[in-house]
Design goal:
The complex is a heterodimer of chains A (553) and B (248).
Chain A lengths: L6 E9 L3 H17 L5 E5 L13 E2 L2 H6 L12 E2 L2 E7 L5 E3 L15 E2 L2 H14 L3 E4 L3 E7 L2 E7 L2 E3 L5 E6 L3 E9 L6 H10 L10 E10 L9 E7 L11 E7 L4 E9 L9 H8 L3 H7 L3 E11 L10 E2 L2 E3 L15 H20 L9 H8 L2 H8 L3 H23 L40 H6 L13 E3 L4 H10 L3 H4 L5 E4 L6 E4 L9 H5 L5 E3 L14
Parallel strand pairs in A: 1-2, 1-13, 2-8, 5-15, 13-20
Antiparallel strand pairs in A: 3-7, 4-7, 5-6, 9-10, 10-13, 11-12, 14-17, 14-18, 15-16, 16-17, 19-20, 21-24, 22-23
Chain B lengths: L1 E5 L2 E3 L21 E3 L1 H15 L5 E8 L3 H11 L3 E6 L6 H15 L3 E5 L10 H9 L3 E11 L2 E8 L2 E8 L2 E5 L11 H9 L3 E3 L1 H4 L27 H10 L4
Parallel strand pairs in B: 1-4, 1-6, 4-5, 5-11, 6-10, 7-10
Antiparallel strand pairs in B: 2-3, 7-8, 8-9
Classes of the chains: A alpha+beta (553), B alpha/beta (248).
The complex binds flavin-adenine dinucleotide and iron/sulfur cluster.
Family (chain B): Belongs to the ETF beta-subunit/FixA family.
Keywords (chain B): Electron transport, Transport
Pfam families (chain B): ETF (PF01012)
């Protein structure tokens, strides 16, 4: 059955309104204005508004923003809290911690000149700047498929609206439009679902190391003004994750923003091997550590969310371009994991792709070719240098653990300036790292106390997540039997624990046992798509506008 | 027949409302806003009546700051023919809104003012009624069904005891309740077209309207949190627990 779709044509189409996509769109319009020419730019965003699906720390390095909008301060960019202090802790036990003397904090972890921000709010502001420059922004519309004709990416098809859970058209069915463009820039962030299709189609990652991931879980708290120190950054590694071993790694953050707000989060490496590990519960118990509790006690939790992070860095970068388009930001994998910063690098990659697309269009290109200018600009940029210097960090941690790996990294960053004469590689995929349940130790998590720690459902409630109820499940199983027939006996179905929103449940007993997918709760973190050991879960975009409605994330 | 639809930009219904720590109001910065859901229903009704050929022109009106433009674009994507933005920053009380709507209603010579029954931010449920009073027109509030017949409208209203059907002479003010209709999905091509339409901006001064200051917000507090339930095993236990609390 073919569907009649409305079609719109643009010069450049941007998929995703994160820092990468918005910077690309702004840069295209700036280039056009400089040349006195016109470039039509359209940007689609699956969230109900720009910023609704953005989740980050975030300590923000303004380097790319300084280049994109030098007078950002005068234009009212929401960078309100300069970093004033940098604490780094090694958590040794539920009670003990060792504070690293400033001298030993590796250079990439220094934050002078940086700001603590809500990346969601920065994106809202960038969205306003882009609209003022004439970018057409359509939030609430998710790109569902790339349009590929004769091996060339011609644009994207927007998801249909008004289909019921059985796949039938409802009375208000509206087929998604085709948006076509000379060049399409994919900026969907970590584990973009179109990026994933393009990767497979063009074998973009065939010469790269496997991409590595982590899940970041974050909460926003309002705390007692007496305990609040605007500008303080607290990073750490160790308990409840591993400090000395090479498994179950990760790090934590706690940032003091303006208005007595702090954000607190735990980043858990998805290379963990114990199928009983629950990143959500690790985070909940972590908040009870005295270093965290001293700030949170007596405060109120006001926001919750989670999002995957691409941390493979330089060694995992796939080919960036294909006929008719390019990957930008975390869809490409530009996060600098040594700094846990990916916003400035995402912005820069978007700007470089935009420069290349604008030049191609000005020189008369009708599109459809590979944006090789983007690749050469990337290689000549500070972004390339930055990622190159940090290329060994994640590998050191995976191979040597947080403490020793961190120490080697300190030597590399501070003595060799990131220029060790060798590159370390980590070739194991994250979904292949789980041990069998029978060979793993169960983890007993204590019940949340409702003051510092909470359960999943009351947490998801704070993400203001909403999906139209009667629609096809957007978490597709390639083989519906795998969860019960394979994942359950082998790994005690880890989806029950790695999903931070309680989407996956095993209910009933014996014959009546059922794998249930509560798709309405999904916060679009993409962890299931990454960690399912059978790679059986395929995340696709739900009806546009669905998902979390994050505020100040 | 010309109809006016008033649309308000409010904090989206999915958002968990937060009170500002100083109790001066709710947090609106960095929070998703959208068209008041009851206004969407009012908008949808106007569009359906136009599709049936009963209405010839739909004018959407919003009051408020610059961001109200988004709400008017939504109204245009629904199918409004024109949009008027009463552009005023700061708080706008129901009486002020009613004065402005009445002024536009008169100026446009409209036959019906459609509003939502209330806005989900302050739940004041006053604007429709006050506008009707200022214009000295009949009002049919909480509509769950509207039928137009020449110079009259038959409106079914949801009331505590069930349904009530009124007949009002036009012009009149009608406010929409939840069950009046189910608003459509906005289609991307319609949103694209709506972006290109012009929006007329006016001020209170242009309309000859004075801002009212009849209400003062003293304090905003969150509702009390529900305390944990207790499980009782027997009826006797329940009764004695209730007695202990002095409830029976
Ligand atoms: C817990 C956590 C802490 C972090 N801390 C920091 C930090 O302190 N400093 C820092 O610099 N970085 C930090 N990062 C990393 C940073 O947030 C990311 O690198 C950055 O957001 C990447 O930007 P992006 O534009 O590539 O993607 P994203 O920010 O992920 O944005 C992608 C956008 O595209 C939209 N989208 C996706 N798919 C589609 C589709 N098919 N159709 C339409 N729209 C789509 C999404 O809804 C989203 O709005 C952190 C990340 C996490 C998770
Ligand atoms: S279902 Fe998948 S993408 Fe959605 S919240 Fe759970 S793990 Fe994340």
């Amino acid at each position: 059955m073919t569907v009649e779709r409305d079609v719109m044509e643009y010069d450049v189409l941007v998929v995703g309104g994160g820092p990468a996509g918005l910077s690309a769109a702004i840069r295209l319009k700036q280039k056009a204005a400089e040349e006195g020419k016109e470039i039509n730019v359209c940007l689609v965003e699956k969230g109900s508004e720009i910023g609704a699906h953005i989740l980050s720390g975030a300590v923000f390095e303004p380097r790319a923003l300084n280049e994109l909008i030098p007078d950002w301060k005068a234009q009212g960019a929401p960078l309100n809290t300069p970093v004033k202090g940098d604490d780094v802790y090694f958590y040794l036990s539920p009670e003990k911690a060792f504070k690293m003397p400033g001298l030993f904090v590796p250079k990439p972890m220094h934050n002078e000149g940086n700001y603590i921000i809500s990346l969601g709010n920065l994106c809202r502001w960038l969205g306003q700047q882009a609209e003022a420059l004439g970018v057409e922004i359509y939030p609430g519309f998710a790109a569902q498929h790339p349009i590929i004709e004769d091996g060339v990416v011609k644009g994207v098809t927007i998801g249909d609206m008004g289909i019921n859970h059985k796949g039938e058209h409802k009375s208000d069915y509206a087929p998604g439009m085709e948006l076509r463009a000379k060049y399409t820039l994919f900026g969907e962030g970590c584990r973009g679902h179109l990026g994933k299709q393009l990767n497979a189609l063009y074998q973009l990652d065939k010469d790269a190391d496997p991409q590595h991931y982590a899940i970041g879980i974050k909460e926003i708290w309002t705390i007692d003004p007496a305990k609040h120190q605007a500008g303080l950054v607290v990073h750490g590694a160790g308990w409840p994750l591993n400090l000395l071993g090479t498994d179950s790694l990760g790090g934590s953050f706690l940032y003091h923003l303006e208005n007595n707000t702090v954000v607190v989060g735990l980043i858990v490496d998805l290379s963990y091997s114990n199928p009983y590990l629950s990143p959500f519960d690790e985070f909940q118990r972590f908040k009870h550590h005295p270093v965290m509790k001293q700030y949170l006690e007596g405060g109120t939790r006001v926001g919750y969310g989670a999002r995957a992070i691409c941390k493979g860095g330089f060694n995992s970068l796939p080919k960036m371009v294909f006929p008719g388009g390019a990957l930008i930001g975390c869809d490409l994998g530009t996060m600098n994991f040594a700094k846990i910063k990916g916003s400035h690098t995402a912005m820069k990659s978007g700007m470089l792709a935009a420069d290349a697309a604008a030049e191609a269009i000005f020189s008369g290109s009708e599109g459809g070719d590979e944006l090789t200018g983007y690749v050469s600009k990337f290689k000549a940029s500070w972004l390339y240098e930055e990622l190159y210097q940090s290329r060994n960090f994640g590998v050191f941690l995976h191979k040597f653990g947080s403490l020793i790996g961190g120490a080697i990294n300190w030597v590399e960053q501070n003595i060799f300036g990131g220029k060790f004469p060798f590159t370390a590689h980590d070739l194991k995929f994250d979904h292949k790292s789980l041990k069998l349940a029978k060979d793993s130790q169960k983890i007993e998590y204590t019940k949340p106390d409702g003051k510092i720690s909470f359960d999943k459902l009351s947490s998801v409630f704070l993400s203001s997540t909403n999906h139209e109820e009667d629609q096809p499940v957007h978490l597709q199983l390639k083989d519906a039997s795998i969860p019960l027939a394979q994942n359950l006996p082998m790994y005690d179905e880890p989806a029950q624990r790695y999903c931070p929103a309680g989407v996956y449940e095993i209910i009933g007993e014996g014959e009546a046992k059922k794998f249930q997918i509560n798709a309405q709760n999904c916060v679009h973190c993409k962890t299931c798509d990454i960690k399912d050991p059978a790679q059986n879960i395929n995340w696709v975009a739900p009806e546009g506008g669905g998902g979390p409605n994050y505020a100040n994330m | 027949m010309k109809v006016l639809v008033s649309v308000k930009r409010v904090v989206d219904y999915n958002v968990r409302i937060q009170i500002k720590p100083d109790g001066s109001g709710v947090v609106t910065d960095g929070v998703k806003h959208s068209m008041n859901p009851f206004d969407e229903i009012a908008m949808e009704e106007a569009v359906r009546l136009k599709e049936k050929g009963k209405v010839t022109e739909i004018i959407a009106v919003t009051l408020g700051g610059a961001k109200g433009e988004e709400t008017l674009r939504t109204a245009l994507a629904f199918g409004a023919d024109r949009a008027i933005h009463v552009k005023e920053e700061g708080e706008i009380q129901p009486l002020t809104a009613a004065r402005a709507l009445a002024a536009i209603f008169k100026k446009e010579g409209a036959q019906i003012l459609f509003t939502g029954k209330q806005a989900i931010d302050d739940d004041a449920n006053q604007t429709a009624q006050m506008t009707a009073a200022l214009l000295d027109l009949p009002q049919a509030t909480f509509a769950s069904k509207v039928e137009l017949d020449g110079t009259k409208a038959q409106v079914t209203r949801e009331i505590d005891a069930g349904l009530e059907t009124l007949e009002v002479d036009l012009p009149a003010v009608i406010s929409a309740d939840l069950r009046l209709n189910e608003p459509r999905y906005l289609k991307l091509p319609d949103i694209m077209k709506a972006k290109k339409k012009t929006i007329e901006a006016v001020s209170f001064a242009d309309l000859g309207v004075e801002a009212a200051a009849s209400l003062k917000t003293i304090k905003t507090t969150p509702p009390p949190t529900r305390s944990k339930g207790v499980m009782v095993k027997t009826v006797d236990e329940l009764v004695s627990a209730l007695k202990a609390k002095g409830l029976v």
